[in-house]
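Page 37, top half.
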Amino acid sequence: MPTYLNLQTVQEKINELQTALFYDLSNSVLKIPVSVIQVLTLDELGQIWFAMPFQSHYSQDYNRDFLTELHFFRKGKDFYLNITGKAFLVLDPEEVNNLYSVPDELKKKVQAKELALLNVKIRTADYFVRKIYSEKKNYKEIFQQLFSGLFFNPQAGDLNYRVLHLDQ
């Protein structure tokens, strides 16, 4: 049974992980390619801001807003986070200048159309906790893990599933 997260907890987890895989889920013919992104800022409205490489000669063909998915993870962490939401492509120089949370160096690259600035309004956040197994195991632990994998009880799984819904 899912338990519900608050926005502050999701923001803490995103700040801890910092990197994600970005997926464009639009039905557009020309999609923004799957990319590894690094979070610039998170605001109190549940928006994730980041920049990514951008091909400016196709800027008129991209949708300005589209559905997206972000998969946050980091090696060695015992949790990961999948976020879905609506992404907004920010290309207008006036709009970029009015953002105070974005560094000036990054603003110049966005205005030169080397990078695109995106923000994702979080719609749902799926939080998963996984068990990290130690590398050194004795034969009893190996057999226990093997047999528990064969006779897996879905009610007693290793994953906790929590969802945050921010639909307007």
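Page 37, bottom half:
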Amino acid sequence: MTKSRIQENYETKIFPELKKMFPGKNVMILPRLMKIVLCMGIAKIAKEKTAVKEHTEELTQLSGQHPITINAKKSISNFNLREGTPVALKVTLRKKRMYDFFDRFCNIISPRILDFRGFNNKLDGRGNYTVGIKDQQVFPELNLDKVKRTQGLYVTFCCSSNDDNMSFQMLKMMGLPFLIENDRRK
């Protein structure tokens, strides 16, 4: 099996650079990209069976694998939600598909986002980073003639390290376009 361009770059350049940046750290503590999770909320359109099927096909095209459906665990009357109703679609990418998606996301998808200047640099406190995308139409894999409604999704980059600083440095070195501090709009 051939390695992805990003995986090869990580192993040959980024990992040795991380060793230099964080000397004295155990090699096993240094961050690695473990998985990428794509999650699309569909609670508002769950009553339309064709809409759920369409978004399942879209997420399959984006990721290259079939998503799982997440159902509501409890009924909540204030949200008009019944137990067992589909509320989200989720795909977990690992290994080669993960690196290929990361490459496409950094180099093709991110520049296509409207008014894109970079992603904020706030990680979740556990070394993971989540990006919210408002419109799935920025993905070139989708046939825009078949897209009937815009739907957002979350992309979560899960790292092996619990240290935000180390994970941030790794993601930045891998090519994730972060917002430069001086360029922020206020």
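Margin note: Residues 182-186 have pLDDT under 50 and may be disordered.
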